[in-house]
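Researcher: Going back to the complex we discussed earlier. I've cleaned up the inputs and rechecked each line, so this should be the final set. Can you rerun the prediction on the complete assembly and write out the structure?
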Amino acid sequence: MKNSIEIKVRYAETDQMGIVYHANYLIWFDMCRTEFFRRIGIDYRELEENGVLFPVIDAGCRYMLAAKFDQDVVVTAKLVSVRGVRLKLEYEVTRGTETLALGHTEHAFVDKNLKPIKLRKYYPEIWDCLMKALTLE
Amino acid sequence: MKNSIEIKVRYAETDQMGIVYHANYLIWFDMCRTEFFRRIGIDYRELEENGVLFPVIDAGCRYMLAAKFDQDVVVTAKLVSVRGVRLKLEYEVTRGTETLALGHTEHAFVDKNLKPIKLRKYYPEIWDCLMKALTLE
Amino acid sequence: MKNSIEIKVRYAETDQMGIVYHANYLIWFDMCRTEFFRRIGIDYRELEENGVLFPVIDAGCRYMLAAKFDQDVVVTAKLVSVRGVRLKLEYEVTRGTETLALGHTEHAFVDKNLKPIKLRKYYPEIWDCLMKALTLE
Amino acid sequence: MKNSIEIKVRYAETDQMGIVYHANYLIWFDMCRTEFFRRIGIDYRELEENGVLFPVIDAGCRYMLAAKFDQDVVVTAKLVSVRGVRLKLEYEVTRGTETLALGHTEHAFVDKNLKPIKLRKYYPEIWDCLMKALTLE
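Model: Rerun complete. Updated structure for the full complex:
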């Protein structure tokens, strides 16, 4: 399953090259991920309040075309794998018909002390949401 | 009492105007504040771990000259007032002999639930550090 | 005249206090300002491309209540004065019926070399947009 | 050749998980890269002023241990390849004897219009600095 959000580029996100500073794409992925989770039935804010965190353990991005101030871009997230204590998402940033960037993040399932949690065992309803999202196109 | 820190401007801090994005000055004030507190005997990290927080309740900055990528700037903090449940600091950002910006922040003394704390009563040793810093030139 | 935008708080905007880091409010003001200008007929992106910049020369914010991750906040901008080579806006950040923060920014009218421009003389159509916005409630 | 810089974690770099927000590592890589270039004889600020830019075309980071507010971390950069119109660096973030993160960035050689430049041909002295850095341990 995929889910997209629209972002209007902020002035603060530009750098002196006149384009969006590259680290901001990871923030866009994060925003898109939160909405993806919401879409599949997981309220990430509540999840954290209940002591389950999904910290980033790996992130990457390939930049093809630059985004610029005040442009409208679309970020799309897709869940690509869920294993014992981690999951992986892939992202695409587009502007109209152009692909600006492709990226991914991997996340661990941990508690407030950043210790791994067996999500399937202790939070089966969250696990089910992820499983369902994996199988849907 | 005053305390200064040196900062080398990061590329990420610039915007498409080719200068440091204005909001970053508040981050520089914050860095300078942490070192100011350390200098007068208050480890702000420990303070928070012990449940005392100094959130910003007011901040301001006047921008005179722009800072640019890779320049070395100096930020100086000065404690100007401490009252019942709040304190105020003033800041100056300089580059060589030029003043780039002048600013201030005010902070409340609160606990982890953001409720006001009477610092003088419950954390007299912290209060004393602040009082001493006020009187020293 | 006033104009409002809606913002969903990003995870990246929080700090370890569990609330939005204070410097981000200036970024929200900036976003709101861009939309305010668009609303009154000024495309700030185009303006910069034509060599007219409105850098921030003064900014301030009073923080009353904290915004938190994933909350929906509304930021409202109002133009309060336009003089020879500068203008001033005021902002309010609200969440439902609560006011979270009040702020302001002042801006100079400059060219690409950051030299002051007499907007009224050289860009009368921009000046007129500002004048009209000042008089409208 | 390798080059390291020291960074004290800023409060602004933390998020509500109580750790450094992951996107900030890319900013640290950037800072480290600038110093690496300076060390091998390339002043990146001057380079950009002369119309040569090294935008990021790929970036990645694997996060092993979290950095926290006020901690001292060391970031080390190493140039691993230079080809026709691009170069690649690898980074390590450490705290004492612990490795917190490993990352990389790839950069294109472009002009102000983001068009590829043959560095070897048009900026042989820059090319030579890079070649020398590649061969040194």
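Model: Worth noting: Chain A touches chain B through eleven residues (CB under 8 Å).
Researcher: Good, that matches what I expected from the previous run.
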